[in-house]
Design a protein that fits this description.
168 residues, 6-stranded mixed β-sheet, elongated
């Protein structure tokens, strides 16, 4: 099933960028927010898999903070400036696809993706994505976080499995 993306511009320049981006991205809808930022963001949060917000990061953070539940369920959120110079992966970077969406948006707009997840920055495997790609369910999220921290900090981990697994 295709991911549904909402593009939410705030300014006139943001609207122009949103219209341009909507012609380049599949399965997206533009929702101008002028005068209705909170209402529009909250509605799209419930109905879309990913949000591209063309506005200040602070506005997005303050508006979405009360809605945050879990990185495995929250939609991906990418924030762009109205010139399309930067596409910031703000929420649900790995499993939600925020990092990939930021890279895609930056590529389409000849901009720069801003990815801050340590695994991506350091070129390490994101274990949550690795497990998902293999169709594995993570039984203990805290342990996964602990192991991911070890991988990021030390550069390697050893895994034991009764089932054959590909290399990280």
């Amino acid at each position: 099933m295709a991911s549904k993306t909402a593009i939410l511009p705030l300014t006139r320049g943001g609207r122009q960028l949103a219209d341009r981006l909507s012609r380049l991205l599949p399965c997206c809808t533009v929702f101008p927010c002028r005068g209705r930022v909170q209402q529009t963001l909250q509605q799209c949060w419930q109905e879309y898999d990913s949000l591209i917000c063309i506005m200040a990061t602070g506005i997005v953070v303050r508006t979405l903070a009360p809605l945050l539940t879990d990185k495995r369920r929250d939609p991906a959120v990418v924030v762009c400036d109205e010139r399309g110079r930067f596409a910031i992966s703000l929420l649900s970077g790995h499993l939600g696809g925020g990092n990939a969406l930021a890279e895609q948006v930056a590529g389409l707009l000849a901009g720069q993706a801003v990815i801050t997840t340590a695994s991506d920055v350091l070129g390490r495997t994101a274990l949550d994505l690795w497990a998902a790609d293999l169709g594995l369910a993570v039984a203990d999220q805290r342990s996964l976080t602990r192991v991911m921290g070890k991988l990021v900090n030390q550069g390697a981990v050893s895994l034991y499995s009764d089932y054959p697994l590909p290399e990280l």
